[in-house]
Every structure is written in structure tokens, then in C-alpha cells.
Amino acid sequence: MAAAGPPRARTRGLLAGFANSADLGGLELPDGRRVPSGRIIRADTPAHVTEADVAAARAVGFEAVLDLRSHDEVRDCPHPLAQLAGYRSLPLIDPAAEARADISRYRTLGEIYSSSLQRNATHIAAIFAALAESPQGPGPVLVCCRAGRDRTGMVIALLLDLAGADREVIAADYALVPELPGPGAPASPGEGHSGGDAVLRMLDHVSAAYGSTSGYLRRLGLGNGTIDALRRRVEP
């Protein structure tokens, strides 16, 4: 297989008005491969966008928009692309499970992410099932939450890990998107958002507790066909 060319510079703000939007295209995979552009775009959900911004985003031709925010967040700030046929509200956080959890006992953001994998397992399973089942046409899938960071970052990190991306590559992708101020972001005791330590700790937990990301997804009840479909989302 021919060696891949040099990686293109990846920047935030791919979509006008969506400050924390970025294409996964160009990220390194095993054997010199790279994630093709236009497959998966991660983003925040801006509270205010112009009509021109919405028109430009619609023109991208998204096959699906997976909104990981809570139902309350969606109600208070509808997604700018909510009218697209492929839009789905899929909260990552299970409010009943969160209400029973004592988040204050976790020392780092990585521990919060790791514990979330079990606490919010049913919701996470629905997100990955929807991603696998979304049409893989010419347009990309948009994965988004409020800041495009924590919830989106967890899902994207697991997807890239499933495809075999080096974990330093995954951490760098996570760190590309800074946290946006405001309500809805988890507390980050002992860990800032400037690097990828939190997502690396989560992936280490996945390896220790489930053997691999594919093992975790199987524990969620996803079958081999669904897991293979998820890999194809980011593989050339």
C-alpha cells in the first residue's frame, strides 16, 4: 500500500458559526491510512447563528446529525440543523443514572469519563447504533453536543480507538477543541482541558475493564455487524 501523504493542518471552525467544528479527515490510522475527509464532523451547538451560517451548514449535505445534548438543552436551544431529515436527539447522559451518582468523589475528568461509560451505557449504546445505522452516502455525519468537547469527545475517541488510531492521535484530536464556558460542562477536578489526558485515561479504563473498545461495545449489546459498520465510518 502506498504511503499516505503528509497530514493536512487541522483547524477548528470548519463550519461557519460553529466555533468548535472539525473534520476527522486526515487523522492517522494503522498501515499508513488516514480517515477520509467528509465522513465524520464533530462540533459544538451554537446558541446563535446567522441565516447564512445555517444555509452553509445545510449545504454540506449531512446524512445525519447526532445531537448528544440533554432534552433540556435541546428544548432551551434547538439545534440549528434540527429540521434536517437525519437529525436525531440522542442524549449521552442518562439523567436518572446521573442523579444517583456522586460525581464529587472522582478526582479527575478522566475518572468522570470512565465512570460515565457504565453509568450511561444504555444511552451510549443508542448513539453508536444510530451512528452505525446512519446512511453512508456522499455527505458526512455530524456528531455534536453543547461545546463539542466532552460528550462528543468521548464518542469520537471510542470510534477512533475502534478503528485502531494511535492513542496520541486521539488525544491530539480531543485537544484540538477547547472547552467553551457556560453551564453543562462537567467539573474537571485535577485535570484541565488543555491536553488529552482525560480521554487517554478513559481509553486506558476501557482496555483494563473490557479488553478493547470493541469489547466495550459488545458489552453494550452491539453485534459484530454493527461494530464493523462503525469501523467503516472512518476507514478508507
TrEMBL record:
- Per UniProt, the enzyme's principal EC class comes to hydrolase
A molecular-function term among this protein's GO annotations: protein tyrosine phosphatase activity
Q: In the UniProt record, does the keyword Oxidoreductase occur?
A: no
Keywords for this entry? Hydrolase
SUPFAM superfamilies given in the database record: (Phosphotyrosine protein) phosphatases II
InterPro entries noted in UniProt: Prot-tyrosine_phosphatase-like, Tyr/Ser_Pase_IphP-type
Q: What is its EC number?
A: 3.1.3.48
Q: Please tell me whether the keyword Hydrolase is annotated for this protein.
A: yes
An example Pfam family from this entry, by short name, is: Y_phosphatase3
Protein name as annotated: Tyrosine-protein phosphatase
Supply the source organism's classification.
Bacteria, Bacillati, Actinomycetota, Actinomycetes, Geodermatophilales
